[in-house]
Each structure stands twice: as C-alpha cells, then as structure tokens.
Amino acid sequence: MTVSWTPEWLTADRAPFTLKAGPHEWRGVRPTDWAAVGAGLRIAHEDLRRLPVRRIVEAVDAVVDLWAKRDFTARRTTVRSAALVTGMSEETIDRALDAELGHLRADSLLAALTRELGDPEVLDGFRGGTTAVGPRTVLAVFSGNVPGLPARSLVRSLLVKASVIAKVPAKEPHFTAAFLRTLHDVEPVLADAVVATYWERDDEAVLEAALDQADAVIAYGGDQACAAIRARVRPRQLYEEHGHKLSFGIVSAEYVTRYGVAEVARRIAADCSDFDQHACLSPQVYLVQEEHARAVAEHLAGAMRREAQDSPPGTIDAQDATVLQHRRLVAEWRAATSDASEVWSPDGLEWTVVLDDALMPLSGAGNRVARIVSVPDVAAAVDAMRPFAEHLQNVGLGAVGEQFRRTARELAELGASRVCAPGAMTKASMVWRHDGQPRIAGLVRWCDVELHPELDRP
C-alpha cells in the first residue's frame, strides 16, 4: 500500500521512497519538481475556493461516515499496517481512530467554525461587511505515532480552502494517503488540493523547496524538530507549532467521594491506556489527594488489567522495554524503602501502576504506566506541576463545585490549554483551541468593508 498521495494532475517527475518497520516496507513517491507542485496547487486552490464551506463540511462528514465503520476496507488495511509500524494492537488503533474521527462530523466542524469565525460562511464571501480568506497553500509537517493525528490539521486547512503539502509521519505513515483516497471518491476537488509525501528529517533541500510553495506552515514534533522548521519559516508565512507537551491529572477527595474509588480508577485507567499512553494528551501522572491515593491505586491495578484485556497493549521495542523495566526497578526500590510507595504490575510489561508520595523526574514515553502521586490537597497538586508549566497541555481535573472552578482558572494561568474530566483526557474535540490558540481563525486573514455606501444597500 502506497503511503503517499499525489493528484492525477501532478505529472512531473517523482522519486520513489521506502519506509521500513522491522521486516516490513511501505513505498511511496515524492515530487522532484516542487515548482510544478506549487503551480498545480495554485490551480487546485482556485477550484477549492469555489466550493461552499458547507459542501466541504458535508464531504468530510461523508468520508468520516465511511471510516467510522470498522469493517470499511480502507480502514482495516490502514489499521493492520499501522499496527505493524507502531506496535499498537489493532483494537487500540481502532479506538484511536474512533476518537479522532468522531470529532470530524459535520456538527463538530460547524461548531468549531462558528466558535472561531462567528459565521462559517464568511469563508465564502462577505457577510455583514466582513470576509475571511485562508492561505493559498499550507505546508503541514506531521510526526508521531498517534493514528489519525494528521486529520485535524488537514481538515482545518481544507475548511479555510487552503491547498496542502503534507509530510506524513514516519512512525504512522498510512492514514493520510488512505484518508485522501476516500476523500477523492467523495469530493475530488478537495483531494486534488493535497499532495502527501515523505522526506527524511535531515533533507533540508526538500524542506526548503516545499517551504517555497507555502503561505502557512504547521509543524508537529519535539522541541528540536520544531525549532529547525521554525528557523526556516519566512516572515510572510503564518506559522503554527505543536511541540513537546505534557499532561497531568488531579483528583480531589470530594471527587472520589462523589463518584467512588472504583469509578475514579476506571477513568484514570482509560486515560493511561488510550493510544498506549503515547499521545501528548495522555497523563504522565495523576496527583491524588492523600486520603484516597492508596485506595485509588489499588483499584487502578484492576482497572488497568481490564483495559489491557479489552484493548491489548502493543508490542514494545527493545529500547522502550529497557526504559520501562528501569522505571519499574526505580519504583520498586522506592517502594522497598518507603511505606508511602508501592508498585502493581503483571509479569509482563502490559501495564504498571506506581504509588508514590513525591513527583519524581518524568521519564519514559507512555506504555501504560499509571503513576499515582499522593498530595495533601489540590493546591499542592497545582504547585507540583509548576516546574512543567512550559510544556503543560492537558489536565484531567477531578474536582467539584467552587474548587473545580477555582482550580481550572489556576491551571489556565499556569499554562494548560485544556481542562477536562478524568476519563476524557484523550478525547479532545475540534472545538478545543489546540494548544491554546484558535487553529481555524489562526489560518485566515480578514477583510472588512466599512465607510462605504454600498454596504447598506440591499
């Protein structure tokens, strides 16, 4: 299965590439004449501009309706291939796609457009004396191994009628091209406005050539990778960045009293198991008020076991397995020397629950390690997160009443861009202003008609 997408109009020379994952290989093609790509996307953009925004929404909704069916051929092929690359189980990937694509239905897209633009149809022309115009071409550089991740930025770009050059992520390259092939079946004008391909991170020549064609740039990746792209962005280009992020959970005593220890543990287990805990939205730590911390951790061990049965964890490569085993050893050493610490885990590496009374330096990359840290109160939990404020993204806040409202505001001031209920940490909607910025409105420029007599004429 090819992991690239090039419209039929792109007849210029293309170079083959191969992506490998263990014994498995996937192939695609990469344009070599980027000036021809830019010229073709300019023409495709003109066709895209003529589509009403509601037709774009309807087309995306129709594609998602097909992909929502787990037996849809393109989805099954993509899930099987993604499992080979990411190591995730097919059930975990299916759940990830359910979560990602579920927020791309028509009602969600229209709600996001309305929240950010006021009236979605300002993208079609002047409404009440104002109109919004998207970029001609967006360069989107994707990274990571979260299945379906590129869909959000790809759809946002198409909603503002921008053509797209997409660099698919090496760690999960299959989804983008497969999604675009379905989009072409539903509405060719949309898919023909996208070129999706791959190049190595250190291939600066291709990056520069792609940048030359873009009016806006969206970058995903670690801090170093994003910094390398940011340094090359031109002054005239809009720039959007999704770098390294951390997420936490907080649970108050009142929240446990209201919902019960078992239910709270179930919600935390869901947060720590979705995406095998590899998403930025996944919690690194849950800070739980001390009178309930041990009970929550004890119940959490059973909840993590049930999650592993319902949605089996993926294969962990040798390096990650070594890191995870080291994390367990450190936790077990602390448990042997402190009555406040304990570790629950099976013989294998399917899941781990750690109880501690100190927020140790964060290490490792997910793989279903649920860390419960006991804190005196919610205020202490917020204070414990302050050293990580620069990278703070998402907080699952288990609090009620005035304490919830006060703490949510404190978290916003600390740097969080999303606060949700425990159990919903990985299920961010399209209405969320991703990483704290309006991602649809951020792609458009506005034009207002004012002080003109024609404005008031029928």
UniProtKB/TrEMBL annotation:
Pfam families tied to this protein: LuxC
SUPFAM superfamilies: ALDH-like
EC numbers, comma separated: 1.2.1.50
GO MF terms held by the record: acyl-CoA dehydrogenase activity; long-chain-fatty-acyl-CoA reductase activity
GO BP: any one term: bioluminescence
Keyword tags: NADP, Oxidoreductase
Reaction equations catalysed: a long-chain fatty aldehyde + NADP(+) + CoA = a long-chain fatty acyl-CoA + NADPH + H(+)
Group of enzyme by EC: oxidoreductase
Record family assignment: Belongs to the LuxC family.
Name by which UniProt lists this protein: Acyl-CoA reductase
Naturally occurring in which organism (per UniProt): Saccharothrix carnea
Classification lineage: Bacteria, Bacillati, Actinomycetota, Actinomycetes, Pseudonocardiales
